[in-house]
């Protein structure tokens, strides 16, 4: 089941929710204020693969450390 990210415009929190693909855009209440007009965010993901040297390397992704050359998030500040 995919993990979706949502943001509440009232209390401005961002939260994640595991939901079936068919329910991704179905109404959901904010867990903090119970607001009903929560918006689904476009989430970035990262993917990793093992290089010829045996080390894990980033091979794609949108945000976070997906595009940096550091070996960990501590190295790039994310």
Output mean pLDDT: 78
**Uncertain segments:** 62-67
Number of helices: 1
Report the portion of residues in β strands: 25-35%
Specify the oligomeric state: single chain
Overall geometry: elongated
Report, as a whole number of angstroms, the end-to-end distance: 26 Å
**Count of DSSP E strands?**
5
Order of helices and strands: EEEEEH
Written description of the protein model:
- With 78 residues, the protein is mainly beta.
- Helix content is 5%, strand content 29%.
- It is built from one helix and five strands; from the N terminus they run βββββα.
- It has a three-stranded antiparallel sheet with strand order 2-1-3, with no helix packed on it. It has a two-stranded antiparallel sheet with strand order 4-5.
- Strand 4 and strand 5 (56-61) form a beta hairpin.
- The longest helix is centred in the last third of the chain and has 4 residues, at 73-76.
- It is elongated.
- The relative contact order is 0.17.
- Residues 62-67 have low confidence and may be disordered.
SSE layout and pairing:
Blueprint (H helix, E strand, L loop, with lengths): L2 E5 L6 E5 L20 E2 L5 E5 L5 E6 L11 H4 L2
Antiparallel strand pairs: 1-2, 1-3, 4-5
């Amino acid at each position: 089941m995919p993990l979706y990210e949502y943001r509440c415009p009232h209390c401005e929190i961002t939260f994640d929710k595991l939901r079936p693909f068919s329910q991704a855009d179905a109404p959901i209440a904010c867990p903090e204020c119970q607001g009903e007009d929560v918006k689904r965010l476009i989430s970035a993901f990262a993917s990793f693969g093992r290089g010829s040297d045996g080390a894990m390397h980033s091979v794609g992704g949108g945000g976070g450390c997906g595009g940096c050359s550091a070996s960990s998030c501590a190295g790039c500040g994310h």
